[in-house]
Write a structure and sequence with these properties.
It is a single chain. With 209 residues, the chain is mainly α. It folds into two domains: 11-177, no CATH class; 178-209. Helix content is 47%, strand content 10%. It has helices spanning 11-22, 30-48, 67-77, 94-97, 126-139, 144-151, 155-161, 185-208, and strands at residues 57-60, 63-66, 83-84, 87-88, 101-103, 113-115, 170-171. The strands form three sheets. A three-stranded antiparallel sheet has the order 2-1-7. Strands 3-4 form a two-stranded antiparallel ribbon. A two-stranded antiparallel ribbon has the order 5-6. A hairpin with a 2-residue loop joins β3 and β4. α2 (30-48) crosses α5 and α2 (30-48) packs parallel to α6 (144-151). Residues 181-186 and 204-209 have low confidence and may be disordered.
Amino acid sequence: MLARLSFNFEPKKLGSSLAVFAKTVNDLTKLKAAKLLYFADKMHLLQYGRPITGDKYYCLDYGPVPTVSLNIMSDMISPFTVTLKGKRLEHPMRSTVEEYVTVGNKSARHPRIIARKDSEIDSLTSAEQKVLTYISQKYGQLSSSRLIELTHKERPWLKSNERRPEGSSVEIPWEYFFDESSPDTTPILSHVAELAENRAFLKTLHEDL
C-alpha cells in the first residue's frame, strides 16, 4: 500500500498565487480565492507531481477548502482575537503573505484581496505561473456561487463528502485528486510519492547545512 501523499505548505507561494489572481480578478474575495487555489493546486499536482501551495484541503459544505490559506486570509480581513499576556497574536504566516497582497475595504460585506503594486512572484516557477494564469482566466470571472457549484462536482470533494458527517469537515487526501479507475494511477501515485520524499529529504539536508 502506498504511503499517504504529504506536502509542505509554503506561505510565499500562497502570497504569490493570490497576487497573480488579484491582478486579473477584480472581485477576489476570500471564498473565490479559496476556489481558485483549489483548481490551481489540483492542476499543478496532476501535471507536475505536486500542488503549488502545499496546503491541506478539507471537505466542507461550500466545497474543498485550503485550511491554512483560509485561516491566513481570514486573519488578514479580521484579525483573530487570541491574546497572550495582553498581546494579540496574528497568524504566524500572515506577514509573509502580506508582502504580496493586502485587503481592501475590510468593513465591506465581502472584502477584496488586492495585489501590492510592488509584489513580486519570484517564488513561483514558470510552470506555476502558467497554471495560475490559466486558472485565473478560466475561472476568475465566474461568481463564487458558480465556483462552489463546480467544486461540488469534483471527485475529491464528492468522494470525501461520502464520509463527512453533516455540518462537519473531513480532510481530502491528495490521492483523491487522481482517477482511481485509470490503470495508470498506481504508477503515477508511486512516482508522485517518490518525488515528495525526495523533496522532503533535500529540504532536510538544506536545513542541516
